[in-house]
Design a protein that fits this description.
The chain is an alpha+beta fold. It contains 12 helices and 28 strands. The strands form 7 sheets. Strands 1, 2, 3, 4, 10 and 11 form a 6-stranded mixed beta sheet that branches.
Length: 514
Amino acid sequence: MKNPQPPINREKENKMTHYIGIDLGTTNCAVAVLNAQGEPDIVHNKDDGQNTTPSVIQFFDKSTYDVGMESYKSLGMDDVFGRFKRYMGTDKSYKTTFGERFTPENLSALLLKKLREDTEHGLDGTISEAVVTIPANFANDARESTLAAAKKAGLNVKNIINEPTAAALYYSFYAGRDLNGTYMVYDLGGGTFDVSVIKIRGKKVDIIATEGVKELGGDDFDKALQQLVADKYQQQTGSRLNQDDYDLIEAESDKKSLSIRVSKKIPLHSNGGRATIEITRQQFVDSIADLIKQTELLCEKVLSESAKSIGDIQEIFLVGGSTRMPCIIDSIKRLFNKDPINFVNPDEVVALGAAFYAAYKSDGKNLNTLQKLAIADVQIAEITSKFFGTSAHNRSTNTSVNTIIINKGESIPCTKTRRYFTRYDNQTSINLDVTECDNAETDLKYVNTIWQGEMDLPSGRPKGCPQDVTFSYDENQVMHCKFSDVESGRTTEIDLTMGKKSDDKFSTDKFISH
């Protein structure tokens, strides 16, 4: 007689399919999931059990690669690539010694694939949906490229969220008290700086204003220290320091030491022989003074855009590993006359918040009672981080100018329509485009054209026929555009989403993780 099978635990079955949040960072990545108690947990990576995984990929041949700490230790060598997130959505590429060429999107896809495999291994289950975080200042092309990379990695990504918003969501849960007021999220990571003014009432998070710099972070501080050491070596020896003799990994390590010590002695051996260079914390701070000033100016700018004063900000929440630097803490104190808040690992807070968001945006089928209760009162109100428009002819100047359709800071999702008119009699076509800019620019030299096209019009009509242009900005902060000839009903519609510039021929399946 066969032994009877134990009853099926339906609750356990439900736990085998997960909604995860992924912080796809410039220097490090983290993955989190909402656990059975309705609390977000970091998922350890498979290789060394750490909470974060360095965003570095090393290729051994055309089909074998490695991601993580061991690759990070080889950063600077041939076929080792990092910091590629900064160039998402651009034409930059990375060439290996064996002839393969990778875009930042391709590299991100392989990185995300590794994170997916590690997560499935750590959770002993499958991933139903994932939310990937992005910097608030990411342009549309970079957002599309991120979505495309996730798709190539085999992830079901229906939603993305800005990194400061994800962090604010986590802080709203775990502040130890009900938050009610205006707060600032100060996000300084390895590659980017974002700062957002946010209104929080319980679990309701409203983004009021956000600003960011695409290339300002720990990587820039490392380069500044590397240059400072090189200058001191040359002063002491009269010879230039070979960059390989003091690389960015060593600079990053010494930067961290200077966050603990007031000085650091660095032994070197390069073109001018052996030398010991002493760097004080103040010398390092002086070398990055312009970068720190840039963060302060951006804080002032976002306060102005939000119509808030320094006194209106109740607390400043820290996000990103670079906020551990004493000079950054001092900068915030000088500007806001108060200590910033940091009761969680700044490297993990974005992923933890994204895990909440993933569950919040899910269909809820695989959530248990406690998980559903955790997200029951969550509300997120995001805003646009760019101006979007189209070019049009200006009659008074007889030139083409940029016209804004969706303003920066508009609550999303949103839909806006603007009317234009044909320029001359018997006009049978019209040029179409979509523009993006950080400021309300009219000069086309200062905008990014993210799409161009053309639409045919009926012949034999007088000038002045109305043309409606409708832009819709969805919850994933991606543009959907419709150009309409009102009289004829002819339309051209485009969705600037899911990897418009993606190389569809690239497949992660041909690569084996080492």
